[in-house]
Specification:
alpha+beta; Nucleotidyltransferase, domain 5; 2 domains; 23 strands; binds adenosine-5'-diphosphate
Length: 505
């Protein structure tokens, strides 16, 4: 019998990837195709939906060719995607009415500012969607397209148009228009979906002036969405798993139950904590979102989500702007070259302080410098700042959820830094588990697809595949950590509300 695989399509913000996953949960091949970023105006970010599709199909084809995979060897396809990015297309021709408005795009910030004048509206949005009203989410992006693309509103009202996040666009395209659907995790990032009722919310649709006929059907993340029918892919392959990137990573890390969490150390950090069937609302302005569930899970499951704005980006800054390191990996050697930071703290509040401090006017700082400070101390303090920021987020989340984490799963580019992982474990005083494959987003999408088809039996089987984690356990004393954390808290306090410099006058 030829070996069988699940293929994950990981449609990210800067590239489309296809990943081959075998029954043991091993990544056997990856193909990555970057695609064009469009910046038509300052603060605007767009993608061409056709290029998203073509780069994704090319990655899939190349993966099959390079790994000699026959169509009959593909059990199923799972999709994971950049979240919130908004596409509207014509139901008849399949042609997008405009470029995709990417999650990073700020063009609709004025719409949200207008809404924010009414505090009650913000509260209702938060109660219904779990989100803090922002231009980031799809709702205002849809409204913008309907109001600014010629004829779009009339066509939408006549039922001729379809809206989708990237997963939905890919599903529609791969099934040649047979399926207009999305999954609960992606729906929960649109700011139009009532996460408690599990339905598009009429009040929100009215608020953003969006006809319900535009919207995809919402299904569980692990369900039979349809089968491939596009000429660019082998026909008849089940599409049976969909989840937004962060929720896919949570699932790929085998966080299936309340109290389990993962932190992704990339450009920024994304921390998600599974909270079971309870949707906790945060008193630290973290968002409540829907988690991806295994098939036949009777009730909707939720997660708390928070992010650190500047994480790996700080290491890039040390490399590209300060020239203190040649490669990101070198930061580890340099940090280990000194026993501590000699009292130096780096607070990377380049764009303000996020959760739980929320101070948009704070600016970054390097504090505690003495004549004895060397570049190794600064590099070490920079790495430690990733761990401190994560600590603050974890502390806020634990308070919101009323649970203590017993361990933390980690992934993302900077999780390969052993110094950082050890320091993180020390500061949190809990063990960290780093899976052998840090491709957790792709694995999550593959798991969701393969659980639906029976390629994998259940979540216990998936958990058992994760035996080769590298563990980091706390080695410092709690007293020592407490002293370091107090230093960090003081450093953060000193960066708050910096007076703006002359350049802004
Ligand atoms: P993203 O998906 O956000 O682009 P990745 O998960 O690919 O990010 O991680 C890349 C980030 O991780 C970069 O910002 C880089 O500076 C950082 N990084 C990569 N390797 C290391 C390392 N060994 N130590 C510290 N930071 C690292």
């Amino acid at each position: 019998m030829p070996e069988k695989f699940v293929i994950a399509l990981d449609q990210g913000t800067t590239s489309s990837r296809a990943i081959l996953v075998d029954r043991k949960g091993r990544v056997r091949g990856t193909v990555q195709n970057p695609f064009t970023q469009h910046y038509p105006q300052p603060g605007w970010v767009e993608h061409d939906p056709q290029e998203i599709l073509s780069s994704q199909l090319a990655a899939l084809t190349e993966l099959m060719v390079s790994h000699k995979v026959e169509p009959s060897q593909i059990d199923s396809i799972g999709i994971t995607n950049q979240r919130e990015t908004t596409i509207i297309w014509d139901r008849l021709t399949g042609a997008p009415i405009a470029n995709a408005i990417v999650w990073q795009c700020r063009r609709t910030a004025p719409l949200i500012e207008q809404l924010a004048q009414n505090k009650k509206t913000l509260t209702i949005i938060r109660e219904k969607t779990g989100l803090i009203a922002d231009a980031y989410f799809s709702a205002s992006k849809i409204q913008w397209l309907l109001n600014n693309v010629k004829g779009a509103r009339a066509r939408a009202e006549a039922g001729q148009l379809a809206f989708g996040t990237v997963d939905s666009w890919l599903t529609w395209s791969l099934t040649r228009g047979a399926v207009h659907a999305t999954d609960v995790t992606n729906a929960s990032r649109t700011m139009l979906y009532n996460i408690h009722e599990g339905a598009w919310d009429p009040w929100l649709l009215e608020l953003f002036d969006i006809p319900a006929s535009l919207l995809p059907e919402v299904r569980p993340s692990s369900s039979h969405f349809g089968v491939t029918a596009h000429s660019g892919v082998p026909a008849g392959i089940p599409l049976s798993g969909i989840a937004g990137d962060q929720q896919a990573a949570l699932f790929g890390q085998c966080c299936f139950a309340a109290g389990q969490a993962k932190n992704t150390y990339g450009t920024g950090c994304f921390l998600l904590m599974h909270t079971g069937t309870e949707a906790h609302s945060s008193s630290h302005q973290l968002v409540t979102t829907i988690a991806a569930s295994a098939p036949d899970t009777a009730r909707t499951e939720y997660a708390l989500e928070g992010s650190v704005f500047v994480a790996g980006a700080l290491i890039q800054w040390l490399r590209d702007d300060l020239g203190l390191i040649r490669t990101a990996a070198q930061s580890e050697t340099m940090a280990n070259a000194v026993p501590n930071t000699a009292g130096v703290y780096v607070v990377p509040a380049f764009t303000g302080l996020g959760a739980p401090h929320w101070d948009a006017n704070a600016r970054g700082a390097i504090l505690g410098l003495t004549r004895g400070a060397r570049k190794e101390h600064i590099v070490r303090a920079a790495l430690e700042s990733l761990a401190y920021q994560t600590y603050d987020l974890v502390a806020a989340m634990q308070e919101d959820a009323g649970t203590q984490l017993s361990s933390l799963n980690v992934d993302g580019g900077a999780s390969s830094n052993n110094f950082l992982m050890q320091f993180q474990s020390d500061i949190l005083q809990i063990p960290l588990a780093r899976p052998l494959s840090i491709e957790t987003t792709a694995l999550g999408a593959a798991y969701l697809a393969g659980l639906q088809t029976g390629f994998w039996e259940n979540t216990e089987q998936l958990r058992a595949l994760r035996s080769k984690d590298q563990l980091f356990s706390p080695t410092r004393t709690p007293t020592n950590c407490q002293a370091l954390l107090e230093g960090w808290a003081q450093a953060v306090a000193r960066t708050r509300h910096q007076p703006r410099g002359k350049e802004t006058l």
